[in-house]
Amino acid sequence: MSVSALVPPLAQGDFFTDRSAGAGNSCVAGDGLCPKWMVDNFDQYTGPLVRHAELTIVAVAIGFVIAFALALIAERRRWLVGPVTQFSAILYTIPTLAAFFLLLPITGRGFVTAQVALVAYTLLILFRGVRTGLDGVPPETVDAARGVGLTEQQLMWQVKLPLALPQIIAALRVASSTTVGLATLAFFAGAGGLGGKIYDDLTFKSNVVLASLLCVLLAVVLEIALVLVQRALTPWTRAVNA
Amino acid sequence: MTLATELVPHLPVASLIGDALEFLVKEQRSIDGTPIGGPSQLWGLTRTHLELSGAVLLLASFLAIPLGLALGHTRKGELVAIAASNVGRAVPSLALIALFVAFLGTGFLNVTLALVLLAIPPILTSTYVGVAAVDPEVVDAARGQGLTETQIVRQVELPLALSSIFGGLRTSAVNVVATATIAPLAGVLTLGDPIIATSVYGDAGRLGASILVALLAVLTEVGFAAAQRAATPAGLRTSRRSWRRSPAPTILTTTNPPRSTS
Questions:
Q1: What is the DSSP letter of B154?
Q2: Chain B residue numbers touching A99 (CB-CB < 8 A)
Q3: For residues A62 and A120, what is the distance between their CA atoms, to the nearest angstrom?
Q4: N or C: where does chain A have the smaller number of CB atoms within 10 Å of the terminal CB?
Q5: Where are the domains of chain B?
């Protein structure tokens, strides 16, 4: 029983993988793993790859703004930590596919629907990351900063946040690679991405391998970028190590 | 006209929700006449969903917990345990299932194996972290009392790590239940089938199944959270504040490896 018989394809022309270029090629006809086909047809994948990166970066950025703001508010209002964590944990639990279609009657198909769901998934990771970082600042350091006369605002931006930065970046790394994975399902919400390419030709090894590799590559590149950001923002950690 | 649609006749959103709920409770005909929806079909799909998830979790536990215990006890292979969770996160579940379909074909066994790969990292990492976090002095004391290494693992480290292990199981279980939704792509008809095959089930079926899957995932989370609390030794329980003490193992990265207290 072939997969396509079980699962009717979505009516989405933009994912159509053109295999006609490989007509007469036994490797392509046999659903094989064909390096030449992958190189020749790479341009079919650049659009979805860029879209996938957009989906991920926008979702993590919006999620970070929300989670960061909530974490700062919770610095003064401690009681917020429990409810926010529990609420975002429930959001985190809802399967991506279900979330897209639960949103469908409200936000319709497209980028917005995918973003709402993807942002919701980053909240738990990012909120917890920022809180862990802020909670890890030693009380003596805070006391000393207050002792030399820093205001609460200066204390937060000049002492606590720089010290919390490694935890915050760690959470951003987890959030970005998780979002790359979840965004492979965004095409179900009509938002495109590499998942559409994978789904388009599930039995063609070259297609699946190339699209999957690009996903992993995107996740790795984003993680490396975040590590570089961390290095740039925390020069003192390198001075100690050297 | 059903009761649900009569009550809310003017709101398109509400009537779609009404149709979705009707799909769940009453069998209907699709456009080409095949019976769809209703308790008996949905129960069948739910059962496959649960069977698949259960098989995956059992198999993943049998592989990951002993390995995690061994690595944690010897405090070796920290890199393996941590790298497993990082690599596991970077491979999208859709890609994993697609790779299995493309190379091994469809079917229950292949989907199970693909999902096992997905389920292992959180369990392995949380087991490792749980065991490695046991106070070395406690282990020393046990050794001083003449316990063998096996006894230390089974009677000291395993009970103390149990809460962390259940945390990993919980993460994996929720992941697996969520990912089992795309199993129909590989020929295993789970609750994801009405979601993916819209042309057969229609929008109401899609929304109805989405509601069911979301409920199933939340129930899994709640159930495993209760199991985690029950598995925590009484002395380690922090009642109301337990959520603050047990960071989810998924958040672990190479930048915050577990540290021993020595």
A1: I
A2: 210, 214
A3: 10
A4: C
A5: 43-251
Alpha carbon B188 to its chain centroid, in Å, reads: 17
Residue in chain B closest to A186 (alpha carbons) equals B94
pLDDT in tens, chain A (242 residues): 334 333 444 444 445 666 665 556 777 777 778 888 888 888 889 899 999 999 999 999 999 999 999 999 998 898 999 999 989 988 888 888 889 888 888 888 889 999 999 999 999 999 999 999 999 899 999 999 999 999 989 999 999 999 999 899 999 999 999 999 999 999 988 888 999 988 888 888 888 999 999 999 999 999 999 989 988 888 877 765 54
Say whether B206 and A98 touch across the interface (CB within 8 A). Answer: no
Say which CATH topology domain A44-234 has: MetI-like fold (1.10.3720)
Sequence-distant (6+) residues with CB within 8 A of A54 are none
Q: How many CB atoms lie within 10 A of CB B148?
A: 11
Q: Does A166 touch chain B (CB under 8 A)?
A: yes
Give the integer Cα–Cα distance in Å for A229 and A235.
11
Domain boundaries, chain A: 44-234
Separation between Cα atoms, residue A120 and residue A107, nearest integer Å: 15
Measured between beta carbons, the chain B residues lying within 8 angstroms of A133 are: none
Q: Which of residues 65-104 of A touch B (CB under 8 A)?
A: 81-82, 85-86, 89-90, 93-102, 104
Task: Check if the interface score ipTM surpasses 0.85.
Answer: no
Partner residue opposite A95 with nearest CB, options B181, B198, B256: B181
Closest of B194, B90, B96 to residue A7, by C-alpha: B194
User: Which tokens belong to A48?
Assistant: 């979805």
For residue B198, which residues of chain A lie inside 8 Å, CB to CB?
A: 8
What is the CATH code for B43-251?
Answer: 1.10.3720.10
Q: Which two tokens stand for residue A123?
A: 């909240």
Q: List phi, psi (to 5°) of A204.
A: -90, 105
Question: How many CB pairs below 8 Å do chains A and B form together?
Answer: 171
| Torsion on CA atoms B15, A97, A12, A58, rounded to nearest 10 | 110
What confidence tens digit (pLDDT) does each residue in B13-68 have? 677 777 777 777 777 777 666 777 777 778 888 999 999 999 999 999 999 999 99
Nearest to B112 by CA among B25, B52, B186: B52
Residue type, A187: F
Higher pLDDT, B161 or B254: B161
